[in-house]
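Sequence in, structure out. Go.
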Amino acid sequence: MGRAEARQAARKRGARRAAKAKPTGIRRFFTWRKILGAFFTLALLGMGALYVIYLLVPVPEANAQAELQSNTYKYADGTILARDGEVNREIVGLDKVPADVQNAFVAAENKTFWKDSGVDFKGTARGVLNTLTGKGKQGGSTITQQYVKNYYLNQDQTVSRKLKELVISLKVDQRKEKSDILAGYLNTSYFGRNAYGIQAAAQAYYGVDVSELNVEQGAYLASLLQAPSQYDWAVASDTGKKLVTDRWNYTLDNMVEEGWLKESKRAAMKFPTPQEPKPAPGMEGQTGYLVEAANRQLREQGVSDQELRAGGWSITLNIDPKRQKALEKAVDEQLESELDRKGNKVDATVQAGATSVDPKTGKVVALYGGVDATTHWVSNATRQDYTPASTFKPLVFAAALEHGSTTQDGQPIGPKTIYDGTSKRPVVGSDTPYAPQNQDGRSYGPVTVQKATDSSINSAYAQMAVDVGLDKVKETALKLGVPDKNYPVRPSTALGSMNASTWDMAGVYATLANHGKKVTPAIVASAERKDRTVEFDDPIGRQVISRETADTVTSVLKGVVDNGSGFRAKSSAYEAAGKTGTSENNYAAWFAGYTPELTTVVALFGEKPTEGGGQVTLTGTANSGRASGSGFPAKIWADYTRGALGSGSNEKFDLELADIATVQPSPTWTQEQSQEPDPDPTPTRTREQSQEPDPEPKPTHTQTTEPGPDPSPTNTQTEKPDPRPTESTEPAPTGSGGADDPGDGTLPDGDRPFRP
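Output:
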């Protein structure tokens, strides 16, 4: 073969090889060069699209659900009283969460949290792919992404939501501190049992504040987030219990791996079984009254209704759960057990209220607002639509002591000063005619102030109020805490003709117990939320009356309990002082009393059970006669006080008496045991200005020549008791004037004296 032939053959072979190598069909359109080019083009387009999305997608405002919180109300010992609000959540700062618990969540959910950029691209891509292919929810999100989903977005499983989550997570990671992101994640996550956020979860699963969680408990709560309903130990299947236990171990092992937990400590840990689920406390029973009283005080401290409705408040009350239980028990056993609310029309009208205060601190330690806050919305503890009746009388005496007042004939007013206790005796020296009737129309004749207080004698106290000066009485009352600044200044003021609540009168009597230093009852110990802490005024204020005045009143009120109308409050378990009171027409009955450690005011109110209410008489309560402060209120007070003091107390009153209270006492009359008048009463009264007896003492303003029963003054400086007053057998008057009556002389007080 020649050269020409060889070249021709080579060309043919080359043509065959070229024809054989040339792509045919679809291979003509896809080459490695084209594929690589398309990949890089798509990558650039994707990056460009993501950049555009990054620019266009803003970080939105928080969704409404994420910021909803409940207000949490706690007893003084930290146990939960109630929660209110649409969502059971209390947002807490990360500083409230123990460091070990924080690490447990990071170990369980996102070990690289402190170092990553806030996004797990692989996990997000997997989630998008699963969403597109219909495989449902898929894990793999970082803590930042979960926080963004909870706080800014929603739980929808859509591609658009996933892409937004990615972009917003990148931005949030750049703009926020990691600690803020972790706090937001812990506060927005759902843990089951209707608990949103770590604080609600700690309370729901372990009954503790988040700050009290240990690492084992924190690891369980962190493990729980993966499947709250499946991993709740109380309802989990055997499989669910195994899975959550495995995840609990996984979480703790990760903590060891990261150096956040010592291996020796880890080896000793045991699974922390959660408590059984408990229903969230509602507003039934006394709870609603306690919550409303707390909210009322917060409003007085400048917290608006809007702020309260916004939620997120952690509010600790001064209420002692043991004393609260003792008060409820006392009302149930001493009153409710005696009533037939369904079968007796009078019993159906009875409303009980009480407020108990520590006089040394001003803390409201117990409160009774009514049978049930869900059926009777008005709190009987704080309502101010009834008059305090004769529980006001000690304030008249306090005004007399504080101002150094004298009787119409110039005798200083003290415990031994003699007044005329004749029923319907017109007061002397008043521009307003007034002739008050005593309980049952009983006339006592000449009596000491001590006796007038023991038996709550209207005629004597009405005269004393005029002797002191009605303006001075009002001034003293307002200083002590009587709230009604606009009540009329009349002689009937002495009988408690203004409006006040058990809360108000508890403050008044606590001030007396606190030696004249003003006590303003306080039910809230602390209130705070993430962005605000409420500053409270000190419940103990300045000296509003002298110690000598307050202590002398206390000395006289001891006599009321020891020998007078308050005898049902007497007990060897404690030393007590107090005063009964019953309003006009028997609309209300009161007992206000105190020991050195506890001041409590109990009242019964007659209220129409129909819509619109209205005051009605208590006469006939529990099928008995006229209700009085000596009855149910005093019995409730005594029962509660014994329970609240742990069955008793040895603490005694430390009294510094006014000079007027330390003069020699008058001799005791001998007719106290008889309802028959002394045929020739010639009581001897010690001169108020000297130790020499007055050779011819006369009762102040005696308007009758018919003497009453002997007054038997009580010497409050000795332990020797006088006989108690005799119960009157006269029927109660059928008609009575009002406490505001200008003087028709028909007002019964209602403090009927009793023989035990």
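Check: Confidence is low (pLDDT under 50) at residues 131-138, 663-756. The first strand starts at residue 71 and ends at 74.
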